[in-house]
Amino acid sequence: MSCLVGDSLFASGFLTYIGFFDHYYRKYLQIEWRDIIEQVNLKMRVEMKNVEFLSKPSDRLIWEK
Question: Model pTM?
Answer without folding.
Answer: 0.72
